[in-house]
Amino acid sequence: MQLGLWEMVSAGRGISESGGENARIRRNFSVAIISRICYNGDMEAMRSRQAGVMQRFSDRQAAPAAKKGSTAVMAGFLTFTKEKPINRVVEVDISDIRPNPHQPRSEFDIADIQSLADSILQNGILQPLTVRRGENRYELIAGERRLRAAKLAGLRAVPCIILDISSRNSAIMALVENIQRQDLSFFDEASAIEKLITYYGMTQEDAAAKLGKAQSTIANKLRLLRLTADEREVIMKYNLTERHARALLRLAAPAERLAVLERVVKQNLNVEKTEAAVEEVIGKKKVQNSYKKRSKVFQNVRIFVNTITKAVETMQAVGIAAESQKIQHEDYIEYRVKIPTAASRR
User: Fold this and answer.
1) Which of 166, 213, 326, 335 has its CA 20 to 30 A from that of 237?
2) How many Cα atoms sit within 13 Å of 254 on the Cβ side?
3) Which helix (H) or strand (E) segment is 230 a member of?
4) Contacts of residue 312, Cβ cutoff 8 Å, sequence gap at least 6
């Protein structure tokens, strides 16, 4: 007499909770439940079905061996083919990848790379690198941090997507990919934009469209490159912001900017106070320029006075009894010249 499904489940629960039966009995019991559910208790039908499934699985395993050029093997959660087709994820030896010569990032955070290396050791590389084929090696397009972290983690190969593109387009992709990252410094970003425009013949409008930014934003980024290398070094060393840098651009002379920078660093000035310091320098320059203008006017007045004096002396030299008198007032100069008429000279 066959047991009902509920009686079988209840009996199985007793076996599991008692702990007195071995694993083989529990497996046999599970098979009986599956038979009861799927085949209405017909064990022979279940075994026949199982044999058919295993035969088809065996046939499928043998079939790929006849396929030419396939060396892909699925082992574990995720592996990569050793083939190197275009636009597919493949495994590439790290020694065969050279960094992108157009990499805009000038500095890499060692602690950040180490943290990424630790993550790679735990989870692998979740996002493949992007490369292109060079003459003898692959050239990296995107994924410099992942490549460095993989080397640090001791990996010999990394997953890559191989793109069939020119050196020019590779450089543009590398620049655009890095510019779009949030952790790129504003000076590196400005330099990358300048490369897009200078080396690859783009206009500011083209660069703005490529990067999804307003043209005014591109123009403001490029203005940052007016700062000298020394000024940029100070700004980055003391973690000043892009707004600090923009405030300094109101001053034309590098010496004036460095003087304000020194004050910003010593007094730990925020952006608003930095702008006030710049405004103070501009105000002093206006006063100095005003004095210079007055000096020029004064020099012109002296020329006029000397001209009059010379004219009087010339008349006296030819026998004309001309006279001149200079009277200095607080806000003006009065000059009196007396020239006798022809009747008085007789």
Assistant:
1) 213
2) 9
3) helix 229-237
4) 322, 323, 324, 337
What are the strands, taking DSSP E only, across the chain?
89-93, 97-98, 129-133, 138-142, 157-163, 323-328, 333-338
- Asked if residues 146 and 125 have their Cβ atoms less than 8 Å apart, the reply is yes
Give whole-number Cα distances, 272 to 111, 243, 244, in Å. 32, 9, 9
Distance, first Cα to last Cα, the chain: 167
DSSP 8-class letter at 22: -
Cα separation, 245 vs 223, in Å, equals 10
Over residues 215-253, the pLDDT tens digits come to 999 999 999 999 999 999 999 999 999 999 999 999 989
**Separation between Cα atoms, residue 63 and residue 215, nearest integer Å:** 58
> What's the pLDDT at 170?
83
Structure letter (DSSP) for residue 96: G
- Does 144 qualify as catalytic in the annotation? yes
Q: Which of 7, 44, 91, 144 is catalytic?
A: 144
Q: Is the pTM of this model over 0.70?
A: no
Count of Cβ atoms closer than 10 Å to residue 27 Cβ: 10
Arithmetic mean of pLDDT, 148-155: 93
Contact 77, 145 (CB under 8 A): no
Expressed in percent and rounded to 5, the helix, strand and coil fractions of the chain are: 60, 10, 30
Per the CB < 8 A criterion, the answer to whether 254 and 228 are in contact is yes
Mean pLDDT lowest among 39-48, 63-72, 215-224, 323-332: 63-72
